[in-house]
Design brief:
The complex is a heterodimer of chains A (435) and B (267).
Chain A lengths: L10 H12 L30 E2 L5 E2 L1 E5 L26 H13 L5 E5 L6 H18 L5 E5 L6 H8 L4 E3 L7 H7 L5 H24 L11 E7 L6 H15 L3 E6 L18 H16 L4 H4 L13 H8 L6 E2 L5 H5 L6 H11 L6 H6 L4 H4 L3 E2 L12 H9 L12 H5 L12
Parallel strand pairs in A: 3-4, 4-5, 5-6, 6-7, 7-8, 9-10
Antiparallel strand pairs in A: 1-2
Helix pairs in contact in A: 2-3, 3-4, 4-6, 7-8
Chain B lengths: L1 E5 L4 H13 L7 E4 L10 E5 L4 H27 L6 H14 L13 H23 L3 E2 L5 E5 L6 H11 L5 E5 L4 E5 L6 E3 L5 H4 L5 H17 L7 H7 L14 H11 L1
Helix pairs in contact in B: 1-2, 1-3, 2-3, 2-4, 3-4, 4-5
The chains are: A alpha/beta (435), B alpha/beta (267).
Bound molecules: iron/sulfur cluster (SF4).
Iron/sulfur cluster (SF4) binds next to loops of chain A.
Chain lengths: 435, 267
């Protein structure tokens, strides 16, 4: 395949442009693979992932997150790199990406590489460049750290397949929650074209599992799985619609993660909404919380939202909100309730639920123990008994609990424009930092 | 009369203390372990200083591994690295308890026991710190090609993080120096790692940096600046994940104060 890459710009200038252009992709986790070094190259991976720094917006920096190029033949309305924008353009060479990755990795700046790209010339040309870069990094440099790469919709399936054997994670961004939204804001993109590589990766992973069962040393295909991302608030979808899509992605496509990205108005365009309160960060936060409930707490979208009640309560996290609507299921007796029932108690995380089940088999628990195990009593107190006793007398009454819960840290001002309040809350969704 | 065994604040020190206390045959109620050196002596206590002894410590550690399992072993190793005056005694009690169980492996789940709970808690804290350092350690490349990092960790994490870096960078010569403890984890390329005690920082830091170093340092700073989204700027959130005490050791934050001052002047 033919392409020419301009070599003019300084590497530092390219990095500035191509890191800046990649920052809107919110995925930066390096989790999900355990790989020791073979003793021959450089790098390894550990399951929980590692944060190497935090940027000024409080997000974890784990990977060298860059675009290969910000040239793009497409013109998606919401994207800073769209063809019709007059922005400085740059492209790396595979060699430059390798130099940066290895140079940063040796100094322990990063956990690995996150390589995305605008569409240069055609999807095939772009995918081939990504493939070449990964091949060089893995084969010539023996790099065994984490690699997250984009699969380019519309690219040759064979190229995507070969790239998948070099990457740990692959992702295709859905961009907008529904096909209708895409039609408006990204008319050159089609939902069906996006789904093709997602389906391909799912199938190839299934097949790879069988191969690995037969031959332990068979090469691994995208071992950390797929992820995707949706922009929140650029189009009119409800939380219910968004969560339905996410749930579908988890169930049907075995996605490892779905990311949500509050819409940022980077372009002047009449088709884009104007959000005077800034990006809908609180809404994004609620979606992440609900996402956790789907993945780790056995909740279904239908339990949290419905067509009649399609959006999350911005005042209350979705788990508390659910509990308040189901007070008949509480209080839960901590010494007796099964794991799944414990999981549904506000203030009890999946780790603490696990610890409770383990510890109570070996002795009697009290509230002091629960606290040590990570239970947030401030919340849980309304919903549990321990050894038949409440921690202190509380009423199992919706208004009463609501008032008290809102007195806590997450209390929000009624004026939703006052972003300063929810800016305090964590927008970060790394498992290690959540309750 | 209670006999207090004063141990050095290291895994070897505490495990030697465990050995000596057990070996004293005074009865578990009559002995106590502590690592603090400058505590007020109490009445009715007799103080003995424990000299760290690798052979004794090894014996204890091997027994723990055999009878209480890997998880308990790891829990003890991590907890011992965390600065807490209660840890030596809690570790002793936990080991006594574990070795009296028919199946010592169960000890890790016995969170209703206060000593086990404390050790569990300290392990969690130490793991958290160690995990942070796996990310926050910054290597500089020296003229000789050696990668050097300096840390000032509140817990004794060198031995906890060295295996991780040895696996990650097996073909590099690297050193992580703990300024607070004057210790270094040293890894010669292609070989195992070891801990050097009582070494001065100057032994490692007198060498000049390699030619490439300034280039990568600058590139990293550019990257770090570029990835933040201005509309989401949130210094409080950043500080809660990356407390300021780590920053003097992380190159992306060096020179930042001046930079932000300059920015304000422009406004
Ligand atoms: S294809 Fe990607 S890079 Fe190109 S305009 Fe659309 S979103 Fe932006």
């Amino acid at each position: 395949m033919e392409y020419r890459i301009e070599q003019q710009k300084e590497l530092s200038e390219k990095l500035r442009i191509l890191a800046d252009a990649a920052k809107y992709d919110v995925a930066c986790t390096s989790s999900g693979v355990d790989r020791s070094n073979t003793g021959k190259g450089i790098g390894n991976c550990i399951v929980p992932g590692i944060c190497h720094s935090f940027s000024a917006d409080g997000r974890c920096i784990s990977l060298l997150k860059i675009l290969f190029t910000n040239e793009c033949v497409f013109d998606c309305k919401y994207c800073i790199n769209r063809r019709s924008n007059d922005v400085p353009r740059a492209s790396f060479t595979p060699q430059e990406v390798c130099d940066l990755t290895i140079g940063f990795y040796r100094r322990n700046y990063i956990e690995g590489l996150f390589l995305s790209s605008g569409i240069i010339q055609s999807p095939d040309v772009t995918m081939d460049l990504l493939y070449q870069t990964l091949w060089k990094l893995r084969r010539e440099y023996g790099f065994q750290g984490y690699i997250h790469v984009k699969a380019i919709p519309g690219a040759d399936a064979e190229l995507i397949a070969r790239t998948g054997y070099l990457a740990d994670r692959m992702s295709v961004n859905l961009e907008l929650p529904t096909g209708e939204g895409l039609k408006v804001l990204a008319p050159q993109k089609q939902r069906s074209k996006m789904m093709a590589p997602i389906r391909q990766v799912r199938e190839a992973r299934k097949q790879n599992k069988n191969e690995l069962a037969l031959y332990r040393h068979a090469p691994k295909f995208v071992p950390a799985g797929q992820s995707t991302q949706m922009i929140i608030g650029a189009t009119g979808e409800s939380d219910w619609q968004i969560m339905k899509v996410a749930e579908h992605m988890y169930q049907k496509y075995e996605m490892k993660r779905v990311f949500y990205s509050a819409f940022l108005r980077v372009n002047e365009d009449s088709l884009l909404p104007v959000l005077p309160g800034g990006p809908p960060l609180l809404r994004e936060h609620r979606l992440y919380q609900a996402d956790w409930l789907l993945r780790f707490y056995g909740f279904g979208t239908e339990e949290l939202l419905s067509e009649e009640n399609p959006d999350f309560n911005l005042l209350l996290d979705p788990k508390c909100d659910w509990a308040l609507r189901h007070l008949d299921r509480f209080p839960v007796e901590v010494m007796g309730a099964d794991y799944h029932t414990l999981l549904r108690v506000p203030g009890i995380g999946y780790r603490s639920a696990g610890r409770i089940v383990k510890a109570r088999g070996l002795g009697t628990l009290d509230y002091g123990n629960l606290k040590k195990m990570g239970v947030v009593l401030k919340r849980a107190v309304y919903f549990i008994t321990c050894g038949g006793r409440q921690m202190y007398p509380v009423k199992l009454q919706e208004d009463y609990i609501l008032r008290n819960l809102l007195d806590g840290k997450e209390k929000l001002s009624a004026d939703a424009k006052d972003t300063s309040v929810y800016r305090q809350m964590s927008l970060f969704d790394d498992p290690r930092f959540s309750v | 009369m209670i006999r207090v065994f004063q141990c050095e604040d290291t895994l070897t020190g505490i495990m030697t203390g465990v050995y000596d206390a057990w070996d004293s045959r005074l009865g578990h109620g009559q002995v106590r372990l502590q690592t603090a050196q400058n505590m007020e002596p109490e009445l009715f206590c007799e103080y003995v200083t424990v000299f760290p002894d690798l052979v004794k410590a090894e014996k204890v550690l091997r027994t723990i591994q055999r009878r209480m399992g890997e998880e308990a072993f790891e829990m003890i190793a991590y907890a011992s690295s965390y600065p807490d005056d209660r840890k030596a005694d809690a570790l002793y009690r936990m080991i006594v308890l574990g070795l009296h169980l028919p199946d010592g492996r169960e000890i890790c789940g016995m969170l209703t026991q206060p000593e086990v709970r404390l050790v569990f808690e300290l392990r969690r804290k130490a793991w958290h710190i160690a995990h942070r350092y796996m990310g926050f350690v910054r290597f500089r490349e020296l003229k000789s090609g050696v990668l050097l990092s300096v840390i000032d960790a509140e817990a004794d994490v060198l031995a906890l993080i060295a295996p991780h870096f040895a696996d990650r960078l097996p073909l590099e010569n690297w050193t992580i120096y703990d300024r607070r403890r004057k210790k270094a984890a040293v890894h010669p390329a292609g070989k195992g790692w070891l801990i050097l005690e009582e070494v001065e920082e100057a032994c490692f830091c007198s060498q000049k940096e390699s030619e490439e170093e300034a280039r990568y340092d600058a590139l990293w700073k550019i990257f770090h600046q570029a990835v933040g989204i201005a509309e989401r700027t949130n210094p409080d959130l950043q500080s809660s994940f990356l407390p300021r005490k780590f920053r003097p050791f992380m190159n992306e934050f060096s020179g930042q104060q001046e930079a932000s001052k300059g920015g304000r002047d422009l406004l």
